[in-house]
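agent: user wants the structure for TctC from Bordetella genomosp. 2. delegating to structure tool.
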Amino acid sequence: MPSRQRRILLAATLAASCLASAAWAQASAYPARTVTLYTAFSVGSGPDVVLRILAQELGKMWKQPVVVENRPGGGGFIAMEAAGKQPADGYALLQLDSEHVSALPHLYKSRNYVTLEKFDLVAPLFYTPFMVAVGEKSPWKNMTDLVAAAKTKPDSLTYGSWFVGSPGHLGGEWLASLTGTKMIHVPYKEVSQLYTAVANGEVDWAFGTIPSTRPVYDSGKLRYLAIAAPQRHPQYPDVPTVAEAGGPAELDVNSIVSLLAPKGIPADVRDKIYADVTKVLADPDIRKRFDTFAFEPLGWPLAELRQRLDAKSATYEKLIENAGISLD
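agent: tool returned. relaying tokens verbatim.
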């Protein structure tokens, strides 16, 4: 090989080596200061509590402070704006659910805001399924009864949710679409108001997570007709799936909560955060603490997380368009 070519090859090899060394040094040095976890959820909510558990464990692992900044409201835009202003260096992370990622772009079309064009996925956190809840005095014993009532009385059955475009709202639209029925959506300002209203018969039914419905359920004023998931929940093995209760098997209403970072986070830093978060969530003691909220910690690869969020986006896009839902 001519000397000039050898010099070029040597220079390229050295450059690649320097880049690899710099990347390794960057990842190995991370974090060198406080990491802030922004969240779209309010203080004391289930996602907030488990995020604080994660922050505490990461702080021990990283030997640096990891703090939680709650920025609820605005459909998630307040938290996204706060986190999005920070550098893409891994020191600002953001907790969002799958609706912030997959439904928001279709609900606010005029804003032309696509969440995954602004943020990179960093790590999945947990999954939570939704129950179909009715009041204790409801005449319905299963999903067959609910669907039959909706078909008998079009546009008269009501279902509640905590806001327009929530999983509870879109899940209701999905059930109506799958069964060829029409029901009236009633949004509430507070989750506590919603399930009290279901218990009192002010609305006929609602979707709800286990932690949000459990206080009223445990009081005996709420019943679960089914879980909108492919399998029964280990904490409620007597509650059938929607399919087992006579409803459409395709109905799978859930929320996936993840950590994201401003677009452009270095891959090596992202990979370190992913590995460390996954390690924390795999700890048996941490999993038990998540069980308190019936949240399932996740260890999916980022490619699988993206695939699931994209599938949700496609489903939500059709539901939102067909129902004419807009928050612009």
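agent: one observation worth passing along. The first strand starts at residue 35 and ends at 39.
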